[in-house]
Amino acid sequence: MKTFNEISQLVANELEKINWNKEPKGLYEPIGYVLSMGGKRIRPALALMACNLFSEDLQAVVRPALGIEIFHNFTLLHDDIMDKADVRRGKPTVHKRWDDNTAILSGDVMQIAAYQLIADTPANVLKPVLDLFSQTAAEICEGQQYDVDFENRENVKAEEYLEMIRLKTAVLLGCALKTGALIGGAGEKDAQNLYDFGINIGLAFQLKDDLLDVYGDESTFGKKIGGDILNNKKTYLLIHALKLAKGNDLQELQNWLNIAEENQSEKKIKVVTSLYNKLGAKQICEEKMEFFYTKAIANLEKVSVSTNNKQELRNLAEKLMLRND
Amino acid sequence: MKTFNEISQLVANELEKINWNKEPKGLYEPIGYVLSMGGKRIRPALALMACNLFSEDLQAVVRPALGIEIFHNFTLLHDDIMDKADVRRGKPTVHKRWDDNTAILSGDVMQIAAYQLIADTPANVLKPVLDLFSQTAAEICEGQQYDVDFENRENVKAEEYLEMIRLKTAVLLGCALKTGALIGGAGEKDAQNLYDFGINIGLAFQLKDDLLDVYGDESTFGKKIGGDILNNKKTYLLIHALKLAKGNDLQELQNWLNIAEENQSEKKIKVVTSLYNKLGAKQICEEKMEFFYTKAIANLEKVSVSTNNKQELRNLAEKLMLRND
């Protein structure tokens, strides 16, 4: 059994080995750039860790795991065009450093590169891994579309929000884990429990992200606190605040949702945050996060390998919940 | 053996059966729209015809063939954003009817849908078909990138242009034919000869397109004649005209390349066309088209099935060369 740190190092080394220094440069250079921005590489690590539960040989899972990471980075690349985001991880985004057309086309070829890596799955599980990957990839696009749709809808329900983040974020974690499990030789039941573990960790992970965006520490979180509040993003916090607020609180919250002046930003963040606290939205979000985390741990417990061998995955899940970045 | 018309009908029926009426509508509706615009469906027809050379059972090739057609339509969708093209086949393009973000995301999920169909290739040839498809898909992106790069380059060589159209257009015809052959049970040699047949037909097809853009009949061609000339597109015709022109001819050609006024459009098309004629660029392009067509037919002749059974493919190749639309 390898530790998370050993696996992370292995993933980083293997990702480094892929050559993006190819012609035409205008197509491949942005891919090298995006991947050089870094990131936690959680998804390929999950694939390798899941594989490692069932097999000591991790060679066969490396390329499919990298395919999942490259697909993830492709979605960030195209999302950044759609969101008109100029900066990611402190660096100019591809469409900013190059242009929209470059970002579209480089993203397209990244998606193909992801499939090329997935296609190197051992023949005996190629079809189920490929189908799972495609289904997941389509679901991520669906999640992104719902996210966009929600911007123009007033009445987004908490359940709809959870379904959106399941699609947009959680399914790729589930896919990574199940892919690793299948390649490692797991049975269908274990593979499914690991998939469900990924879904529930993913949901908890995203709720944690929503909480950090409001309650995080700017110095460790890596982006400005309060961005979701300023964008009126319909997060689990806002959806519940709107549902719970009555009378003056509701009036005040709705007034602030209509204020977009930049010189009011700090005040807007401050007032909306106190409303989240007062209305109990913060607590509801934290409880829901705990709920999914507990479900995830229960899914992991059902996986038929020794408790000891599952410790690294349990530690990682805990780390993702306790993170402040 | 089925005729081309029978196969076209089969392709149209099977394409019709795919359900795009799914949620979220904003993601899937544009795909149904794009596919409803029509098109010759040459690529899936080629896949079925190639399969039919080796097998009477075409069921196994249908879904991969549709995957190739959907991939082709995905490239048109994203190319139209990049080219800021407002109209395709007489209808508003997706980014015009919806918006850029919709066109990006619907295109992304179309690419995934293409892979889902390719993944239904029979297990015994899944890996080679999948690898060929991914390689082809990446090459098409490379071709598009070269096409974009050439816009800002003065000195594009004829060989570079041919390599660009090989990547952008020809490889998908080759891929369709080889996919059909592999699924039909062809040996590697026959599959490769059919691939080469596709490459050479594709090159001839694109040179024919360049010729039609200048010498076609607007009423049958379906788009305005002279578009390439007005855009100073570095086609095989222009590249050769620039290479052959001397003295006053060169001066005149270069002057017209610098003229972009709309009220000069008709005159520009007329003068540049006569220069193509005078300099022999038209003849060179026609001869090169014939050259690739002849090579294609030679590739087809090498395929180890009866001449009679290859007649439909030979007819189709001829039709593509003699077409005026």
Can you describe this structure?
Two copies of one chain form a homodimer. With 325 residues, chain A is mainly α. Chain A has two domains: 1-185, Farnesyl Diphosphate Synthase (Orthogonal Bundle), CATH 1.10.600.10; 187-325, Orthogonal Bundle (Farnesyl Diphosphate Synthase), CATH 1.10.600. Chain A is built from 16 helices and two strands. In chain A, strands 1-2 form a two-stranded antiparallel ribbon. In chain A, β1 and β2 (91-92) form a beta hairpin. In chain A, α4 packs antiparallel against α6 (100-118), α8 (158-184) crosses α9 (188-215) and α12 (236-244) packs across α15 (281-302). Chain A is globular, with a radius of gyration of 20 Å. The interface between A and B is large, with 36 and 36 residues.
